[in-house]
Write a structure and sequence with these properties.
The complex is a heterodimer of chains A (about 350) and B (about 400). Chain A is mainly α and about 350 residues long. Chain A contains 15 helices and four strands. In chain A, about 75% of the residues lie in helices and about 0% in strands. In chain B, helix 2 packs across helix 13, helix 9 runs parallel beside helix 10 and helix 13 packs across helix 14. The chains are: A mainly alpha (about 350), B alpha/beta (about 400).
């Protein structure tokens, strides 16, 4: 019986997975993820892939907003940079998808750092507006720079191939997406065990104190923007290769708000929270649609009001979550774990 | 696990797979319903026009099923609201394809563009209310069909009419024409074709993007400076209404003729613009109910049975109704030819449709293997006493 988690060595305290239960859960999770595509049909694979891409994007945003405390409404714009860079390099220059994806990540990191410059002077709501400007500027450029992006026309991206295998099916792309999601999660968890990550957290908690401690605010804030945008760009690039087409309407300010909702609902400053938030925000509309369908067959008269109820429920669920657990789904998950760890003598 | 258990499990899984595939593949039966997928915008940013359109599609299916379906087979419309969210459009599309739909009805530019590579890969014929000319590129969008007149053709028809109107008023030469368009791919799509038409006919032509704004005084000033005699608006209803109101308050409407293309030429535009709408000409591919044609009657009768009427629902209902009718015609041709109902066969059947009569709602619809442009002609309408009134016969693009 346990009364809590205690460590007697620094090594144990610093470990990535600190308890046996965590290790076992990790193995079970990996087994589930590996088995899932073999039993799921195409619909569930699409949902899983959308969750995977959203997880990468949410991890990126969480590095910036959750860990470093720099609010960003430019997520949609940065994803657009990633998607268009990857799409253009593959469609126009014939680069393999993995090269163009990496190039897209780096390009987005550079653009992200550029738009991060105002963050040195601006905080909170002011930074939100500055990043909102980034969103609008990027989308304006994308829709108006015709010679580069094709402007009006959607950009069609050729099917990605790997070792001579076309990988644009939901089943095959599942592995690509979730492998990269795993990489992004692992890198990010480890980032916050380094001095860079700790500097980010110090900036979030109190930037003046951080500066007094010798953290170069300019450098680390830009670094946070760049690292965050790197993953956001990857989410955009994967969207381009997965869907074979890039349209600007996928990257509007709605997406920026949606991702912000993901990291807030999932849990700010947490990699697992990013995953929970991404899964929740992607699966809730699908769940509500299917619930509506099931209700429709039982009560035909509700057919016309279902769409409105769905929207209302979507909003209501988010509000209720935030009221009853402001620290997000990650906290709920933690509470569940604690409950069972201390069961039956919890206090 | 013992070998016996393993064997039983394998057998069970194989049986399940067999049953599932048997169910999935058995769509050829005489009485099984024909599954068609659809996504609508009932709650999103375009829901003002998306709602009547979606209701029109649904109502046509209900009417068809109540009248014996297609050759005795019912249509099962799998549909849901996607709130104009591309991700949700994708979710619903894959779900319905998984469930075996043979055709798909979309809605806006967002979902039509995002799905067009997947529908080509899945071989699912697709119709929506997006009439962007780039969907006519047969190599890039082989499964998209356009029932309405494309935005480019609408623009060119409007310019043709403007030249005629200009000369019939005793002026010589050609008028100056301005295009005020929505600042999006939807708004920009007709520009190249309209510019080419203007250049070929010696028309002085300017384009101006309409930003998100509460008034368009600055844009109108630019248009006035250019000296436009005709202003073509290619946007949605509310900005178009604001623009004509601003023009009216500046006294511009007296000597400048405004022409609205289809997404800003509807009942909503008139109710928003009020008396500023008077005299505005609309390029409308689907005849509005205020100008009755035989093609309205069935829909109107069906609606009256259900406590509504076509004049209440408006022209976007007609648009949805007849778009679905064209898709149903393609399915009917496939069945008549005794072919299996697959997306590929329906595409081929649609490509064989010649002069499908919509009873005056649109000009006759024809497709061919080399062109999915359903029609190239439309009638112009004019706002008189708060209603769209027919202002001439079909004009087609040269």
């Amino acid at each position: 019986m346990q009364s809590g988690i205690f460590h007697s060595t620094y090594q144990a305290d610093m470990a990535l997975r600190r308890t046996h239960a965590e290790k076992i859960r990790m193995v079970l999770f990996l087994l589930f993820m590996a088995a899932f595509p073999f039993v799921a049909d195409r619909y569930y694979l699409t949902l899983a892939n959308q969750v995977g891409i959203a997880t990468i994007g949410a991890i990126g945003l969480n590095i910036l907003t959750g860990y470093t405390g720099q609010i960003s409404l430019g997520q949609g714009g940065f994803m657009a940079v990633g998607a268009y860079t990857a799409g253009l390099l593959t469609a126009r220059l014939g680069m393999p998808w993995y090269v163009s994806t990496l190039a897209a990540c780096l390009a987005t990191a550079a653009i992200g750092a550029l738009f991060g410059i105002p963050s040195l002077r601006l905080k909170g709501l002011y930074l939100a507006i500055a990043t909102l400007a980034a969103q609008e500027i990027i989308l304006w450029v994308v829709t108006h720079w015709k010679t580069l992006t094709g402007g009006v026309d959607a950009l069609v991206v050729p099917n990605p191939t790997l070792f001579g295998l076309q990988i644009n099916t939901d089943f095959r792309f599942y592995w690509v997406i979730w492998l990269l999601a795993g990489v992004s999660a692992l890198t990010t968890v480890n980032l916050f065990r380094t001095h860079y990550g700790r500097a980010f957290i110090a900036i979030r908690d109190q930037d003046i104190a951080a500066e007094v401690m010798g953290i170069n605010l300019f450098r680390y804030k830009l670094l946070a923007f760049a690292i965050s945008s790197f993953w956001v760009g990857m989410a955009g690039a994967l969207t381009a290769h997965y869907r074979n087409i890039v349209t600007w309407e996928r990257f509007t300010v709605d997406i920026s708000v949606l991702y912000l909702a993901m990291v807030i609902i999932g849990g700010l400053g947490s990699v697992s929270g990013s995953f929970f938030g991404a899964a929740f925000m992607t699966l809730l509309p699908a769940f509500l649609t299917n619930l509506g369908r099931a209700l429709k067959s039982t009560f035909p008269f509700v057919d016309t009001i279902i769409p409105f109820v769905q929207q209302a429920v979507f909003g209501l669920v988010i509000i209720l979550f935030l009221i009853f657990e402001p620290e997000g789904l990650r906290k709920i998950w933690k509470d569940i774990k604690d409950y069972f760890r201390l069961w039956p003598f919890s206090y | 696990m013992s070998h016996k258990k393993y064997f039983v499990l394998t057998a069970a899984v194989m049986l399940l797979v067999f049953v599932l595939t048997a169910c999935g593949g058995g769509g050829g039966g005489k009485s099984t319903p024909i599954k068609v997928g659809a996504i609508f915008d009932f709650t999103g940013p375009t829901s003002d026009v998306g709602t009547p359109y979606g209701e029109g599609v649904k109502a046509y299916v209900d009417w068809l099923n109540a009248n014996g379906g297609i050759n005795g087979r019912q249509i099962e419309l799998l549909s849901a609201d996607y709130a104009y969210k591309v991700d949700q459009a994708e979710q619903l599309y894959t779900q319905y394809v998984q469930e075996g739909v043979v055709a798909f009805m979309g809605w806006g530019t967002g979902d039509t563009e995002a799905l067009r590579t997947k529908i080509a890969a899945d071989k699912i014929p697709f119709m929506s209310a997006s009439y962007s000319a780039n969907l006519l590129d047969m190599s890039a969008a082989p499964y998209n069909f356009l029932v309405g007149t494309s935005y480019s053709d609408q623009g060119i028809i409007a310019m043709q009419w403007a030249v005629q109107d200009w000369q019939s008023k005793g002026n010589s030469g050609t008028p100056k024409i301005a295009l005020a368009h929505h600042d999006s791919p939807f708004g920009q799509s007709p520009i190249p074709d309209m510019q080419a038409y203007a250049d070929a006919n010696g028309i002085e032509f300017m384009t101006i993007a309409m930003p998100k704004a509460t008034d368009f005084v600055a844009e109108l000033a630019q248009i006035q400076q250019f000296g436009a005699n005709y202003v073509i608006m290619h946007t949605v209803s509310s900005p178009a209404a604001v623009m004509v109101k601003d023009a009216q308050s500046q006294g511009m409407t007296d000597n400048v003729q405004f022409i609205a293309l289809n997404w800003c030429a509807d009942e909503i535009f008139i109710s928003l613009a009020g008396d500023a709408a008077e005299g505005v000409v609309g390029a409308i591919p689907f005849t509005p109910p205020s100008s009755p044609v035989p093609g309205h009657e069935t829909a109107d009768a069906w609606l009256k049975e259900h406590g509504s009427s076509l004049s209440e629902k408006g022209l976007h209902f007609t648009q949805g109704w007849w778009t679905m009718a064209v898709m149903a015609e393609g399915i009917k041709h496939t069945l008549d030819a005794g072919q299996e109902l697959t997306g590929e066969n329906i595409k081929a059947a649609l490509e064989g449709i010649q002069n499908f009569d919509t009873q005056g709602v649109t000009s006759p619809i024809s497709f061919s293997p080399s062109s999915h442009k359903g029609n190239r002609a439309l009638r112009l309408f004019k706002v008189e006493n708060g209603q769209w009134v027919q202002a001439g016969d079909f004009i087609s693009v040269p």
